[in-house]
């Protein structure tokens, strides 16, 4: 069984290493335990036997009613406790379930609960931590690419293309914009991101799709009305696999440091992201060669400092990066 963060980005971090688990441990079948909100991004993944959606919070021990008894009855042989921030709930749950083989990062305490300790290669990109764990288990060098993997079904591809055609896209490059996030701190003001978008749009003609969940729909509609050009709103009309298939057709993604950033990385389009300034530059920085970090070289800022630093960034210079990316892109499809 695999335990870890339940955010979409954190689940995607692990998908680049799942093929190595299957290749080097062909006799093992892997169950991924996560939340309902993130499970969808694992849809169709051939390297996972099943995805369970029993976790209802940040910590793996916060389970839906009846889930503990169900998990215990399965008698798992091994658990990968891959959460690097809140590792103790993973270990506590694994022990309570009676799982005999417990893989976890060493040097973070609770070492007596770990049967297979793995050194944590800190600091490194978040995506590389699970790769280091898998490499240690299978006995090979952690040298495979960190690009996440998604597997949209034919139905997802068809629905995404239907949305694309409904929006009448394809005549111009398309920039998808994701300006909402679940992260509570460290985020750039939306006004900074829209200023970048407007200055880029004044220099080059392209279509804009504002993306979010169904709960973001009203806010995105209001935001779209403030912009001096027409936009499309994609908010709740697509599942995560369908959204991935939709992004694959876009020329670029302009985004906060959120789940869509990692979906964009998974489908291989250029991603220009405003790195979360409350985190480590190394951990939260680029991990794919197709993404561009718009942030200055600062880290571990409080929200007041984030506001000041983000608003001080030259929107024109950042807009130039978006325009250059679009000019070099071979899209639209």
Keywords, separated by commas or semicolons:
Rossmann fold; 12 strands; 333 residues; alpha/beta; 4-stranded parallel beta sheet; 6-stranded parallel beta sheet; 14 helices
CATH level-two architecture of the largest domain: 3-Layer(aba) Sandwich
Silhouette: globular
Strand content: 5-15%
Radius of gyration: 20 Å
* Derived structural class: alpha/beta
CATH class of the largest domain: Alpha Beta
CATH topology of the largest domain: Rossmann fold
- Identify the CATH homologous superfamily of the largest domain: Glycogen Phosphorylase B
Main sheet strand line-up? 9-8-7-10-11-12
Structural commentary:
By secondary structure, the chain is an alpha/beta fold. It has two domains: 2-138, Glycogen Phosphorylase B (Rossmann fold, 3-Layer(aba) Sandwich), CATH 3.40.50; 154-328, Rossmann fold, CATH 3.40.50. It is 40% helix and 14% strand. It has helices spanning 8-15, 18-24, 36-39, 67-74, 87-96, 126-138, 154-166, 190-203, 217-226, 240-248, 259-267, 281-284, 303-311, 315-328, and strands at residues 2-3, 31-33, 50-52, 78-81, 101-105, 116-118, 174-178, 207-212, 232-235, 252-256, 271-274, 291-293. Strands 9-8-7-10-11-12 form a six-stranded parallel β-sheet, sandwiched between helices. Helix 1 (8-15) runs parallel beside helix 11 and helix 7 packs across helix 10 (240-248). The longest helix is centred in the middle third of the chain and has 14 residues, at 190-203. The model has no long low-confidence stretch (mean pLDDT 94).
